[in-house]
């Protein structure tokens, strides 16, 4: 459907906003609805500034992740513009609770997912790394999440009580395939495909104190676990037989509310981290069983009853039956001719709008709960989605996301690297720390949440983390460091041939794809067969649909993009790329002094931190890595320098077997041994071009002296000799 001009007009919807006791009243909704119409601000125009909260008090954190919700499905990002246009040939749906959340917080319309499909996107979120460093890439559903730092482990280590609720899909030891029948499959429960004891990547093995939800990827395709024969796990117990009539968006919300209330009652002074991963509006477009209960919060809204067969208070209705009244009787100008009678919305589109509205109600319910418990001022809530919109319904009637233009003003959907597939947006609300009514134009990506949360929790991000803390953006205090925006992905399908998309992209072969952002320019390439293949280059601020390829104007940026994508990733044999064996180019530095630089830091976390973010206790220079100071267990060491590589070829670097260390060459993590001693390989192999290559060696203090060895063309394994080492020209 065409995007059309945007003009304000009346609408045919009723809007019901749950009224919390201590939150903005419905007038704030009208403010939010106008907010994105040509407006971009970086400072509050009205409303209170963040409270001067006790900086030593760690905020609670709730991270809400949807499944296949598009950028264009948020009211504040796109649907409200269609509503204001009131073009009857361009239908719209509403998200009043998300709009209210946005009015009370900050919008991040330039927020990107790490991959345009669920498993790798969630893996990068959990691990705090982009797809060039994740162990789960492409379509590796149900693969074991790496035994490494996760959002769960770092928040646990910072003193938080942690829980994951909803879809997981990162457990391991389970057959995985992207090929799932395009129909609703009501099947018997699998005989035995594992349990928490046999799933190494189960949430409680990855830093979460509690888990409730779908573990296997395919189970999350249907949304009535008992009726659809799917498994729901509550820690070590499978409980689906007790969940008759439970629609999963309601179920996961009720369980989250119960978990928050129980924790607040038992340990009110301990901060909590909740990862709530909805499995909707993904896959089977099933409807809820009943209207959303009124009011929300502690005593209203969705409630956990604890009674088998009636586990939540909406379980008594008929499954897959409730259509939201705002959409049940909607019609549209199907032929763009006002003189002819309008037709009813297709049933599958009513279902989609209802499912999105249900998530919206769940969000409002949770925010009301925080207000009722008087903890909303000290709770950061982040809302986003795992990738762009899908074209799946798993029903006889086909669903297409161009009815509502769920991809927003962009081209591309789920499994695309055009903006519509990877630019997902986010909303963050924290009344005690984030001033409301703001929009940030800074690009960010999922791996930025780990260092954001660790900074708020008062601990360092792990050394392997690729992200940038978004605290300056959220709080409006300090200067925001630019994020690294990077995506790599393979898919054998094609971009849909929607008329809204640029003609050359309709039916475009995907295969190997890659995207990188440098400054305000985004580079994208499809069907990559060689590293020499050029990036198409776009300024997505001026050209969000990526219609005007600027590559001919920016040959220097083309070269920078080609170099940067080699310097910031580490190949994974399970997801081969045509550029895996390319030589990483050097930096051409010729004026560096001999030796290396070192800094020591206090160990304030139980893991090897990203020391660059901290203030050093001591610093100095040394001739070699081995001549840097040996640090005690209460200290960590950062050694930075430049390695002069004598010839093109494959080089293997190594640290001692009992060292806790991370080695980055350029921005690529070459040795990742920072989780716990003995758990990860102590070597890493990279293709390096002759020339100078910057490195950073993070070293956790111990009885082991810092040491870095190398082996390569004409070099037997040896410690890096002084003649190969130079100091970085800038810290």
From TrEMBL:
Residues 592-723 form the PA14 domain. Residues 172-204 are annotated as: Disordered. Residues 172-187 have a biased composition (Polar residues). SUPFAM superfamilies: Alkaline phosphatase-like, Anthrax protective antigen. It comes from the Bacteria. Its EC number is 3.1.6.1. Keywords: Hydrolase. One of its GO terms (molecular function) is arylsulfatase activity. InterPro entries: Alkaline_phosphatase_core_sf (IPR017850), GAG_Ulvan_Degrading_Sulfatases (IPR052701), PA14_dom (IPR011658), Sulfatase_N (IPR000917). It is an enzyme of class 3 (hydrolase). This is Arylsulfatase. It comes from Rubripirellula reticaptiva.
